[in-house]
Design goal:
The chain has 15 helices and 17 strands. It is α/β, with parallel strands linked by helices. The strands form five sheets. It has a seven-stranded mixed beta sheet with strand order 4-12-11-10-9-5-6, with helices on both faces. Strands 13-14-17-16 form a four-stranded antiparallel beta sheet, covered by helices on one side. Helix 7 packs parallel to helix 12 and helix 13 packs parallel to helix 15. The longest helix has 28 residues.
C-alpha cells in the first residue's frame, strides 16, 4: 500500500534527525521549502509537522522557525545527546549574511537564470585547449609530493613573466601561489594585521559580502567613490600608524564596474606612501577589458613595497583550477607562505602545472582575446535588453570591462523585495545591500555567466516584477557618484 504524502515527509524528517544530520537545536527547512522539495501543498507539510511536534521531535520557536528539540534516543533514554547546534555560533569566523547564503545556494542550482555569478559562462570555457594541456601535463608527470612553500617554481616564473607585460616587475621569490584571491585575503588578515585594525575600502565593495577581515577582528571603514574611483580625500587616519590598511579594486570594481583613472591612481599611491598606509590591490578583473587597455596596476607604481597585489585565473580562465597569487616584499611573502603551509601544505600540484602551461605557452593570451570578444557581445546584449525593458524603471553604468552592471531602480521599490520575487521566478541577482549600499535601490547584474537568451529572459522578468509591484514613480532627479546611463 502506497504511503500518504505526509507520512513520506514525516519519515524523511525522522531519518534526518535520527542520523544526526539535523542535530538537536537545528532549524529545519521552511514550510515553503519543504513544499517545493516534495511537490505538495503547504497544508500537507503542516500535517506532517504537527505530528512530529506531537511526537516531541520538533518545536516552533518565535524568531527561529521550527527547530529539532529531541531525537529518538533522547526520547527513549534519560540522558540528553550532544547539542552541536550550540557551537554553530561560537566559532571565530563569522557566517555569511543570510542573503549571501541564499545566493550561494541558488547559484548551485542550474534551473535558475544566473544574473549574479561573477564568473565566465561554461560556453566560454576553452574545453579543447584545457584537454590538450592536461594531456601534456599527464604525459610529463613523475611521482610528486608537496610543492615548495611559495608554490611551483616554474609557475611563479610564468606569473613573473606575465606580470611584466602589465608593468609589474617582480621576481619569483616575491610571489606566493594561493588557492584563489579569497585565500589570499584570509592569509593577509590572520598573518599581517593587528586585531582592531581599520581596513579602508570602497563603499559599496565586494568585501562587505565576506566576513574574512571582520572574523579576524578588523573594523571596516567605507570610502565614497565617484566615476574616477575611490575619493582619496575621504581617507582619514583614525588610529595610530600600523593599524590602517587600504583594500581596493581599482580595475573594474566589484560591484560598480568603475575603472579608476590614471590620475586618481597616482594621487592614491602618493597619499598612501606619505601616510604609510599599506595597500591590498585586488586585480582579478584586470584582464577583462573590452576596448581599451586599463591603466597599469597600482603595484606598477610601487617603489617602496607598499602594495600587496592579488591576481587570479578564476575570473578569466576557470575557478575550478583554484589558482591565484600574492605579490609583495619577500619578507611578507615568506610569512604568508609559512601560514599557507600550516593551512593546506600548498595548492594542488596538478592545478599549478596546468596553470604554468597556460601562462607560458601563449594560449592564455589567445584565450583572453576570445573572452574579451564574447564579453563585448554579452555586454551589448545586456545593455540593449536593459534599454528595452528597464529603460523607464532604472539607470545604470556602462562598464568598460569585467562582468558587472550596477543598476539603480528609480521606483520606490526596495531591492530586497525585488531579490526575493526574482528568486521565486527563477532569477538570481545580487542586491546592493550585500555590498553595504545604503539606499536599498541598487542591484548588481552579471552578464558573464548566463546565456544570451537567459540574459534577455532574466531582465524581462525583473521588469515585470517592478512594473507589477511598483508603488509610485519618483519624478525628482537622481544624482549619484556612479557613472550612470
Amino acid at each position: 500500500m502506497k504511503k500518504p504524502k505526509y507520512q513520506i515527509i514525516i519519515d524523511f524528517i525522522k531519518e534526518k534527525i535520527s542520523k544526526g544530520e539535523w542535530a538537536i537545536g537545528s532549524q529545519i527547512p521552511s514550510q515553503r521549502h519543504l513544499a517545493k522539495m516534495f511537490g505538495v501543498n503547504r497544508s500537507t507539510i503542516i500535517i506532517a509537522l504537527e505530528e512530529l511536534i506531537a511526537d516531541g521531535l520538533i518545536k516552533g520557536i518565535a524568531g527561529k522557525g521550527t527547530v529539532v528539540t529531541n531525537n529518538t534516543w533522547t526520547l527513549m533514554g534519560s540522558h540528553f545527546s550532544t547539542n552541536w547546534n550550540r557551537n554553530v555560533t561560537q566559532g571565530i569566523h563569522k557566517p555569511s549574511v543570510s542573503t549571501v547564503q541564499e545566493i550561494n545556494e541558488a547559484e548551485s542550482d542550474n534551473r535558475f537564470i544566473q544574473l549574479s555569478k561573477g564568473e565566465l559562462s561554461p560556453e566560454l570555457f576553452p574545453l579543447n585547449e584545457m584537454q590538450e594541456i592536461i594531456q601534456k601535463v599527464s604525459n610529463q608527470l613523475t611521482p610528486f609530493g608537496y610543492e615548495e612553500p611559495k608554490g611551483n617554481r616554474k609557475l611563479r616564473q610564468a606569473i613573473s613573466n606575465y606580470l611584466k607585460e602589465r608593468g609589474v616587475h617582480v621576481s619569483p621569490p616575491s610571489i606566493l601561489v594561493v588557492s584563489g584571491a579569497l585565500q589570499a585575503l584570509h592569509l593577509i588578515s590572520i598573518g599581517l594585521l593587528k586585531e582592531k585594525s581599520t581596513v579602508f575600502l570602497e563603499e559599496p565593495s565586494y568585501l562587505y559580502s565576506l566576513s574574512v577581515f571582520q572574523s579576524a577582528g578588523m573594523d571596516l571603514d567605507g570610502l565614497p567613490m565617484d566615476n574616477k574611483g575611490v575619493k582619496v580625500d575621504s581617507i582619514f587616519q583614525t588610529k595610530e600608524a600600523g593599524r590602517n590598511i587600504l583594500y581596493t579594486i581599482p580595475t573594474f570594481h566589484n560591484p560598480t564596474g568603475i575603472l579608476m583613472e590614471e590620475s586618481r591612481r597616482e594621487e592614491l599611491m602618493e597619499y598612501c606612501i606619505r601616510e604609510q598606509i599599506p595597500v591590498i590591490e585586488d586585480d582579478v578583473y584586470g584582464d577583462l577589458w573590452m576596448e581599451n587597455i586599463p591603466p597599469e596596476p597600482l603595484k606598477a607604481r610601487d617603489r617602496h613595497g607598499n602594495v600587496l597585489y592579488i591576481g587570479s585565473l578564476s575570473k578569466t580562465l576557470s575557478p575550478g583550477l583554484r589558482i591565484g597569487w600574492i605579490v609583495g616584499p619577500e619578507s611578507v611573502i615568506d610569512r604568508l607562505a609559512d601560514l599557507k603551509m600550516q593551512l593546506d601544505y600548498g595548492s594542488s600540484t596538478l592545478s599549478q602545472l596546468t596553470a604554468e602551461m597556460w601562462l607560458s605557452g601563449g594560449m592564455y593570451e589567445r584565450h583572453l582575446e576570445n573572452v574579451r570578444q564574447q564579453l563585448r557581445i554579452r555586454r551589448k546584449k545586456a545593455l540593449d535588453t536593459l534599454d528595452k525593458y528597464l529603460g523607464f524603471y532604472a539607470t545604470w553604468n556602462i562598464p568598460e570591462g569585467g562582468f558587472f552592471i550596477w543598476i539603480k531602480i528609480n521606483y520606490s521599490f526596495k531591492v530586497k523585495k525585488l531579490f526575493e520575487k526574482a528568486l521565486s521566478k527563477g532569477v538570481v541577482i545580487n542586491p546592493g545591500s550585500i555590498y553595504k549600499e545604503q539606499t536599498g535601490q541598487f542591484i548588481r547584474l552579471s552578464y558573464g555567466f548566463a546565456s544570451l537568451d537567459e540574459i534577455e529572459e532574466g531582465i524581462f522578468e525583473l521588469s515585470e516584477i517592478i512594473k507589477n509591484n511598483k508603488v509610485e514613480l519618483k519624478h525628482e532627479s537622481y544624482s549619484t557618484c556612479y557613472p550612470l546611463k
